[in-house]
Amino acid sequence: MAIGVTNVPERSKSSGSIINDPQVRGIFYQAITIIILAALIYWIVDNTVDNLRRANIASGYDFLRSRAGFDVGQSLISFTSDSTYGRALLVGFINTLLVAITGIITATIIGFLVGIGRLSHNWIIAKLSLAYVEVFRNIPPLLVIFFWYSGVLSILPQARDALALPFDIFLSNRGVAFPRPVAGEGAEYTLLAFI
């Protein structure tokens, strides 16, 4: 049995100060926060412009048209040390997309295969897949990258003394080098044969 409380007077909305109204306080605090944030951004920009002017450093994006003066190890588009900084930035974006797409495809394939392995009725495959999942789930990706870089790539030989694998594949501390097919006369017929 519940005991009900009756005749409790309702609190009047008009009977309080505007300071005690939660909506007004919320709007006031948000306005103060925005004003402080805008003042901080203005101070940072003004200070940066003043310091750049005193140091005779030009700001802007004009440097993107200047000569870069360095090489990029791998690029899908042509890049030399005479190319511009803008071209170097574009090469960096394209390389980032290449690594991201390659990583997504590789992770999808590995995840699919390990997931199938976890569901396998074969005890060894199921336990190996479980161990793989439990090990890599609990290790931060940066630690895995560091392990592969320092624990595996650093012990491989230099590019000049690369390990020769079958089918003219070479393994060195720079990575794996695969042969690139060179299209000769009649190469289009080979492509048509695969279709």
Strand-pairing-aware structural class: mainly alpha
What oligomeric state is this? single chain
Spatial strand sequence of the major β-sheet: 1-2-3
**Secondary structure: number of strands:** 3
Task: Return residue spans where pLDDT drops below 50 for at least 5 consecutive residues.
Answer: none
Please report the number of helical segments.
5
H/E series? HHHHEEEH
Estimate the strand proportion: 5-15%
Average pLDDT confidence is 87
Helix content: 40-55%
* Major sheet characteristics: 3 strands, antiparallel
Shape estimate: flat
N-C termini distance: 80 Å
- Overall radius of gyration: 31 Å
Membrane topology: Multi-pass membrane protein
Keywords: Amino-acid transport, Cell membrane, Membrane, Transmembrane, Transmembrane helix, Transport
InterPro entries: AA_ABC_transptr_permease_3TM, ArtM/GltK/GlnP/TcyL/YhdX-like, MetI-like_sf
Family: Belongs to the binding-protein-dependent transport system permease family. HisMQ subfamily.
In short:
This protein has 195 residues and is mainly alpha-helical. The chain has helices spanning 22-54, 85-118, 123-137, 141-152, 187-194; strands spanning 163-165, 169-172, 175-177.
Fold and architecture overview:
With 195 residues, the protein is mainly alpha-helical. Among the domains are: 18-59; 63-138, no CATH class. Helix content is 52%, strand content 5%. The chain is built from five helices and three strands, in the order H-H-H-H-E-E-E-H. It has a three-stranded antiparallel sheet, with no helix packed on it.
